[in-house]
From TrEMBL:
Highest taxon of source: Archaea
UniProt protein name: Uncharacterized protein
Length: 171
């Protein structure tokens, strides 16, 4: 078995295309966006597996909620593509979490209901939290750079507040 120290690399990325940038410049940040995710060098979404899509702000809020969930031992579930893809995040033990790309909601809620094609990777909780916070901060920075007035958008304010709460910062 691999030690948890070897499970520290989680990378998440939004792919901001021109159409998304145009929508943000018009004041619409919660538009569909492509996302890729890899952990310990394996593509979960993106690369050879193809990206997933979803409403950008909802994805960010769900990812941030997954941190809160892990801290209280709850499973986090992120819905992509309006439902044919789900990402399940659950504690394995005090320091590691299981990330599972699932093809059914039942499988996202319970490992015993997963299809054989569901991909599962174990990473440290710290690595997961750092990757989520990095993606969230970059997203907030990107959309507010494209359209500074968007800082006052209710959902963008929710994202900023959640980041600040999770990091203990008062920015």
């Amino acid at each position: 078995m691999t030690s948890p120290d070897q499970h520290t690399n989680v990378e998440m990325k939004f792919h901001y295309d021109q159409q998304y940038r145009e929508q943000v410049s018009k004041g619409n940040p919660d538009r569909w966006i492509d996302m890729s995710l890899s952990a310990i060098g394996e593509d979960i979404y993106g690369g050879s597996r193809g990206v997933v899509t979803g409403s950008a702000c909802i994805i960010v809020l769900d990812l941030l909620d997954s941190i809160e969930g892990l801290r209280s031992n709850d499973r986090g579930i992120i819905t992509f593509d309006d439902g044919p893809s789900w990402l399940s995040i659950a504690k394995c033990d005090e320091s590691t979490v299981e990330i599972a790309a699932c093809h059914t909601l039942k499988g996202a809620k319970s490992p015993k209901n997963r299809l054989d094609i569901s991909q599962t990777i174990v990473v440290t909780q710290q690595a997961w939290e750092e990757a989520v916070l990095e993606l969230s901060r970059k997203f907030y920075g990107k959309v507010t750079d494209i359209n500074p007035h968007i800082r006052n958008d209710e959902i963008i304010e929710q994202i900023r507040e959640k980041i600040n709460t999770l990091t203990g910062s008062g920015e």
